[in-house]
Write a structure and sequence with these properties.
The complex is a heterodimer of chains A (359) and B (359). With 359 residues, chain A is an all-alpha fold. Chain A has one domain: ABC transporter involved in vitamin B12 uptake, BtuC. In chain A, 71% of the residues lie in helices and 3% in strands. The N and C termini of chain A lie close together (8 Å). Chain B has two domains: 2-131, Rossmann fold (3-Layer(aba) Sandwich), CATH 3.40.50.2300; 134-255 and 289-344, Response regulator (Rossmann fold), CATH 3.40.50.2300. Chain B has helices spanning 2-7, 10-21, 43-58, 74-85, 99-108, 133-147, 162-178, 195-207, 221-229, 258-269, 298-312, 340-344; strands at 28-33, 62-67, 90-93, 113-117, 126-131, 152-157, 183-188, 212-215, 233-236, 249-255, 277-280, 287-290, 323-324, 330-332. The chains are: A mainly alpha (359), B alpha/beta (359).
Chain lengths: 359, 359
């Protein structure tokens, strides 16, 4: 008879062991899934996890891993601060869009001027845009006690409408023959975020993501605000007594996560995407929530989780085109990752006991 | 911005290109990038049918690869690079949003040919192709005008781009000719394929009293909604959607890409491929009209088929004056027909349509 017994305290060892365990379980279950689809499971798993890093075209994929991971990591790091403090910003996708719109609009306003100051201004506008969009649920929560989960989530759909309006009217390329979409920023040197080293995919957004990880690490471990964040999440009453101002903390968490999401959007729109288009956003803001939890809300963990997630995307694409695996199988595979993580999380909070007889 | 231009040059690009050259003998590898799943029953389904036709035609001489549900933007660029790296010599990018990614990747792989559907940017190794779907819309419009009892026709638009606006105008002009009292109600779904959204849109239109629904989205969800409501007629979009025959689906526009794809693959094989712009209509078979079922009165069916023949023979152009724009200004004089340039960039409604083309 198997029994679950609640641990007095979450196990530290299991906290770190569950993500790798979840990955292994995903590989096994995914392999079974691929075998049922008539594909060699070993080759499929190798295509997804090995080839992008060490395969024939790894010189290209390694850079792409960073390109894909950077926005995930940058957004997830910001979200994790809030999640630790019990502040639930679910609307990073919207803040990502607004950041891209504001930053992109600044760049397009200067077109076709040249100047070193244009790109920095775009970066500032991107961060401010994301920050402002996040302030809406933040202020509504602190002033009117609205539920920030709902407000931030619903604002994503508002942001998508603004994005569509921008691509179709406000920021539409005047030389685009009536088709939607802005000018391509990648073809406007002063306003673009190009590869720092050609062919590697490496761009400023990736550098910024690394800086965000370091910043969050220092903040959480060496700074009073970080202590307040952790305290507010773990013991709200104690936090109140030790002088934490809950309203300020909510605004801080929303502001930082919004600004980071906005920055991620700006770097994406000026770099890999290049263009403000109707469906510019591809779900980074939502996937980042998974990345934050997969990384245990720890900046370094998030960095690793972001890279892992990027690997499943890029390897998954490779498996689709080279092995003919259906896209749905890859999505199911990614879904399994989160599913297994949540499932094995039981081990963090519970001990498994084997006992004989009646329980 | 010196640092930006300094680094981005030849070295890494040559590396990319030679990586692709490594494997050139053997069958011609042809890649297909799809915006939806191959099972969408509409747009992507027909492109995949054409891919299979290419395989059937050339057998061992070709090897095709495809990827489904590729987001339009930075991800598309990676998928295209990946296909070019793994040896594809001809790549079909089958959605408008792949335009800039196609241009970017084509610049890096000068010896790979690209065929971009519905776009307007060409290069030495990029050709474009599309179909004159508005010809099929004219026939749908005629049938819709005759079938409606409430004189209200619903239209599910995807994105307000020239391609879609052209279809609405063409359908409306011919519905109006068949039934002067007809009005059109257009709703925008902002998606090419999303069964849930399309079902919502169709249900809303039906509840407002529209008893014929036209759609520019790719799923069969509107057909299902119409079947449930009863006494509502629809048309198959992109694909025949024959499973809803004889009603609610009373006819369809079928995209038939197979002859074009086979022709272009053959051209690459014998070295005669050249970049050009193809815009095929009913006459070339690229736009097919699916069976008009018995739910349509015999005389209406005969009229519709006569219209089809007149369009196919070139005797009649669906945009023939006198026609005015929605704002009352003159567009085409008596007997004048629209030129392709105006049609390709169409961003206005014709007189009589209500509502605005959205932001």
């Amino acid at each position: 008879m198997i029994r679950l017994e609640k641990r007095p305290e979450p196990s530290r060892a299991w906290t770190w062991a569950t993500p790798p365990l979840a990955v292994v379980l995903t590989m096994i279950a995914g392999g079974v899934l691929f075998a049922f689809l008539g594909k060699d499971p070993v080759i499929a798993i190798k295509t997804i996890f090995w080839d992008p890093i060490l395969g024939e075209f790894a010189f290209y994929y390694r850079g792409q891993l960073l390109v894909k991971a950077a926005p995930l990591v940058m957004i997830a790091v910001g979200l994790a601060l809030g999640f630790r403090a019990g502040v639930w910003n679910i609307g990073a996708e919207g803040q990502y869009i607004i950041g891209a719109l504001c930053g992109g609009a600044v760049g397009l306003a200067f077109y076709p001027a040249e100047g070193w100051y244009i790109f920095p201004l775009m970066v500032i506008a991107g961060a401010l845009g994301g920050w402002a969009w996040a302030m809406i649920p933040g202020l509504l929560r602190t002033k009117f006690h609205t539920n920030e989960i709902l407000v931030s989530l619903l604002l994503v759909y508002v942001a998508e409408q603004l994005l569509a309006a921008s691509a179709l009217r406000w920021l539409k390329n005047p030389e685009g023959q009536g088709f939607p979409g802005s000018r391509n920023l990648a073809q406007y040197p002063a306003g673009s975020n190009p590869e720092l080293i050609a062919g590697t995919g490496m761009h400023l957004g990736i550098v910024a993501a690394f800086i965000a990880v370091i910043f969050a690490y220092v903040l959480l471990n060496r700074h009073m605000t970080g202590f307040h964040i952790r305290l507010a999440g773990q013991a709200p009453r104690a936090a109140r007594f030790s002088g934490v101002n809950p309203a300020r903390l909510v605004l801080f968490c929303f502001g930082v996560s919004g600004a980071l999401a906005g920055l991620a959007g700006l770097f994406e729109v000026a770099g890999p995407a290049g263009q403000i288009s109707i469906d510019f956003n591809t779900g980074y803001g939502f996937t980042a929530i998974i990345v934050a939890f997969l990384g245990r809300l720890h900046p370094v963990g998030i960095l690793l989780a972001g890279l892992l997630m990027a690997l499943t995307y890029i390897g998954g694409e490779a498996a689709q085109s080279t092995m003919g695996l259906p896209a749905a199988a890859i999505q199911a595979f990614q879904g399994m990752l989160l599913f297994f993580l949540l499932a094995v999380d039981v081990l963090t909070n519970y001990r498994v006991r084997l006992s004989r007889g009646q329980a | 911005m010196q640092r930006r231009t300094l680094l981005g040059t030849a070295a890494a690009l040559t590396m990319l290109a030679t990586g692709a050259l490594a494997q050139s003998d053997g069958p011609l590898k042809v890649g297909f990038v799809y915006v939806g799943p191959v099972g969408d029953g509409g747009w992507t389904y027909e492109h995949d049918q054409a891919r299979q036709a290419v395989e059937a035609e050339f057998g061992d001489k070709v090897e095709t690869m495809y990827q489904e549900s590729v987001p339009e933007g930075a991800d598309a660029e990676r998928v295209l690079t990946q296909m070019a790296l793994s040896g594809a010599k001809l790549i079909f990018t089958t959605s408008f949003g792949y335009m800039d990614p196609t241009v970017n990747v084509a610049a890096k792989f000068p010896d790979v040919k690209f065929e971009h559907a519905t776009g307007y940017k060409r290069a030495d190794n990029i050709g474009t192709y599309s179909a004159r779907f508005y010809e099929g819309r004219a026939i749908q419009g005629h049938i819709a005008g005759k079938l409606t009892k409430t004189n209200k026709v619903g239209y599910i638009g995807s994105f307000p781009i020239p391609e879609v606006i052209r279809g609405i105008n063409s359908a409306y002009i011919h519905a109006k000719k068949a039934n002067p009292d007809v009005t059109f109600n257009v709703v925008w779904a902002y998606t090419w394929f999303d069964p849930a959204k399309e079902a919502d849109a169709a249900t809303a239109l039906i509840e407002q009293g529209n008893d014929v629904i036209l759609q520019h989205t790719d799923s069969t969800a509107p057909q299902a909604a119409a079947e449930k409501a009863g006494n509502v007629y629809t048309f198959g979009q992109a694909s025949d959607m024959a499973e809803y025959k004889p009603a609610p689906r009373v006819s369809s526009i079928i995209d038939n890409w197979a002859p074009y794809y086979i022709e272009r693959v053959a051209a690459v094989m014998d070295g005669t491929w050249e970049s050009d712009d193809t815009w095929g209509g009913i006459d070339s078979g690229m736009v097919g009209i699916g069976e008009i079922t018995d739910a349509v009165p015999a005389d209406v069916k005969a009229e519709a088929l006569a219209l089809k023949d007149r369009i196919a023979s070139g005797e009649y152009h669906p945009f023939t004056g006198p026609l005015k724009k929605q704002d009352g200004s003159d567009w085409l004089a008596e007997g004048e027909t629209a030129d392709d340039g105006t049609l390709l960039g169409m961003d206005f409604y014709v007189e009589g349509l209500t509502g605005e083309i959205p932001n």
